[in-house]
Amino acid sequence: MNIFSRRQSAVVEPAPAFGTAAAEPALDPALRALTGHWTIDRPHSRIGFSVRHAMVTTVRGAFTDYDSTLYFDGARPSQSRAELVIRVASVDTGVEQRDAHLVGRDFFDVRRYPEMVFRSTSTVHEGGETFRMTGDLTIRDVTRPVELQLDYLGSVVDPFGYERTGFDGTTTIDRTEWGLVYNQRLKAGGTMVSEKVRLQFDISAVRLAS
Questions:
Q1: CA–CA distance, 146 with 148 (Å, rounded to integer)
Q2: Separation CA 113–CA 85 (nearest Å)
Q3: 112 or 128: which carries more pLDDT confidence?
Q4: Pairing, β 142-157 against β 36-40
Q5: What stretch or stretches form a coiled coil here (predicted)?
Q6: DSSP assignment, residue 2?
Q7: Long-range residue pairs from 77-80, CB within 8 A, at least 24 positions apart, any chain
Q8: What is the pLDDT of residues 14-60, one digit of tens each?
Q9: Listed residue (88, 173, 80, 149) closest to 119, CA to CA
Q10: Angstrom distance (rounded) from CA 206 to CA 131
Q11: What is the pLDDT of residues 173-198, one digit of tens each?
Q12: Where do runs of H (alpha helix) occur along the chain?
């Protein structure tokens, strides 16, 4: 997956040749060293979401149980890919009653649909430290395309000898497109839960052994 990054070395953006289309953004050659398979380090990562509540505040939550398969190609980012399988019952908003409502039939209905899945379909380097990953997101057996903006944060060998890299990813979806339509109307207008949901991926990934 996009193990892409804010490195200290500069990224040179080549000027387009006269009479031709603009060239692809140049990649930092150091990214080639990151080519390989990675997995998300859950204790140091967060798969989160935020949604407007009662039109006046924002509720945040996260999913704590998931599996990941990530591959990054430092020479050809378009060959990078990712898969994320989330156990929806692990949702945590910090309020037990609210979490119970979310896993019930009004929302995720985890007895029938225990997993949420993202599988990438393409990756594009947009320039500098920013990439765009398009993929299919499946919720409640409904699959629709989404686009993630990914910003590379850096790479390091930690004190325990693990090579790790980090990136932030964000996207906003309309939950009703995945069948999450439950809501309540407010007397003053508007709804209790916004249809727009912001998904946030704060990722620390560890290289897998060959």
A1: 7
A2: 12
A3: 112
A4: unpaired
A5: none
A6: -
A7: 77/2, 77/4, 77/27, 77/123, 77/124, 77/125, 77/131, 78/122, 78/123, 78/124, 79/123, 80/1, 80/2, 80/3, 80/120, 80/123, 80/133
A8: 333 333 334 556 667 767 888 999 999 999 999 999 999 988 899 99
A9: 80
A10: 19
A11: 999 999 999 999 988 878 889 999 99
A12: 96-103
Q: Could you give the CA distance from residue 186 to residue 178 in angstroms, rounded to a whole number? A: 23
Pairing status of strand 115-127 against strand 36-40: unpaired
Decide if 195 contacts 180 (C-beta within 8 A).
no
3-state secondary structure of 122: strand
To the nearest 10°, the Cα dihedral for 203, 180, 87, 39? -20
Kindly report the backbone phi and psi dihedral angles of residue 100, in degrees, each rounded to the nearest multiple of 5, phi listed first. Answer: -60, -35
Q: What six digits make up the tokens of 145?
A: 């395309």
Q: Assess contact for 88 and 112: CB atoms under 8 A.
A: no
193 SS3 class: strand
Task: Tell me if 28 sits within 8 A of 6, measured CB to CB.
Answer: no
How far is 11 from 27, CA to CA, in rounded Å? 6
Q: 88: exposed, middle or buried (C-beta count within 10 Å: 0-12, 13-18, 19+)?
A: buried
List all residues 6 or more positions away from 51 whose beta carbon is below 8 Å from its beta carbon.
58, 59, 175, 193, 194, 196, 197, 198
* Residue 60 in tokens: 């945040």
